[in-house]
């Protein structure tokens, strides 16, 4: 049953309703990975409520899964335009999860979803510099000079990118394939890096995050991470 967010926080024994309202205004509370407003109503049985990145006492068991995201869906818990979201791909028996980072609408590949706020914050924090590897299909050829520019760092509107690892994986049918590994998490970073050096991206797929890779997981399918994998993620 949905109730006002501040009431749910107070009922968990963390603080008074008035203090809960102050925490919400201060941005200390998230619901399903997003900042709520004071009028927000939540159902503790299905919604993931975090205060300072920590779940409420008595919250659902922590679950983290790896999804092979297809193109044509958004990496959000809901979409005002009515487009399919990554949550629509998950089986209904799972607790409410939220994405760790984002892959844009036309990008496919490895995406983590979790209700573990501490893990999500750890992976997203810039100081941990978790490696992310993408397979990129480029229209035309990629010269050695362009590859060196990508490796050294590219000037974008939000600053120069950190050095990247770039490998040419081959070419066919007028396309070249690159494997690009970065340690940052800027919005649409790989696409913007390629555009900045004159490359046209026709396909983009994240194939690795830290030690995790897609393996033979089919597009649109998911698997739940085991305890050992969670521990390794927290140590990255």
Structure description:
Strands 6, 7, 8, 9, 12, 13, 14, 15 and 16 form a 9-stranded mixed sheet that branches. A 3-stranded antiparallel sheet has the order 2-4-5. Strands 1-3 form a two-stranded antiparallel sheet. It has helices spanning 5-11, 17-25, 117-124, 144-152, 189-196, 227-234; strands at 3-4, 29-31, 41-42, 49-51, 54-55, 64-69, 98-100, 108-114, 132-139, 155-156, 159-160, 165-172, 175-182, 200-209, 212-213, 222-224. With 236 residues, the protein is of the alpha+beta class. Strand 4 (49-51) and strand 5 form a beta hairpin. Helix 1 packs across helix 2 (17-25). The chain has 6 helices and 16 strands. The relative contact order is 0.15. The chain folds into 3 domains: 3-55, Structural Genomics Hypothetical 15.5 Kd Protein In mrcA-pckA Intergenic Region, Chain A (Roll), CATH 3.10.290.10; 64-127 and 213-235, 2-Layer Sandwich (Alpha-Beta Plaits), CATH 3.30.70; 131-209, Alpha-L RNA-binding motif (Alpha-Beta Plaits), CATH 3.30.70.1560.
């Amino acid at each position: 049953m949905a109730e006002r967010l501040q009431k749910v926080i107070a009922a968990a024994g963390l603080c008074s309703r008035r203090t809960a309202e102050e925490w919400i205004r201060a941005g200390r509370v998230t619901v399903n990975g997003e900042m709520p407003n004071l009028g927000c109503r939540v159902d503790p049985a299905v919604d993931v409520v975090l205060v300072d990145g920590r779940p409420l006492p008595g919250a659902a068991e922590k679950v983290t899964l790896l999804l092979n995201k297809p193109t044509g869906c958004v990496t959000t818990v809901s979409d005002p335009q009515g487009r399919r979201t990554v949550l629509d791909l998950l089986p209904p028996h799972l607790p409410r999860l939220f994405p760790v980072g984002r892959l844009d609408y036309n990008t496919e590949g490895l995406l983590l979803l979790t209700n573990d706020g501490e893990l999500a914050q750890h992976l997203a924090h810039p100081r941990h510099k978790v490696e992310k590897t993408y397979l990129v299909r480029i229209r035309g050829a990629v010269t050695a000079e362009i590859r060196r520019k990508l490796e050294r760092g590219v000037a974008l509107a939000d600053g120069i990118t950190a050095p990247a690892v770039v490998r040419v994986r081959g070419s066919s049918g007028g396309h070249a394939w690159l494997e690009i590994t970065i340690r940052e998490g800027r919005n649409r970073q790989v696409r913007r890096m390629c555009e900045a050096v004159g490359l046209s991206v026709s396909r983009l797929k994240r194939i690795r995050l830290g030690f995790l890779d897609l393996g033979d997981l089919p597009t649109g399918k998911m698997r739940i991470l085991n305890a050992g994998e969670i521990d390794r993620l927290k140590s990255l």
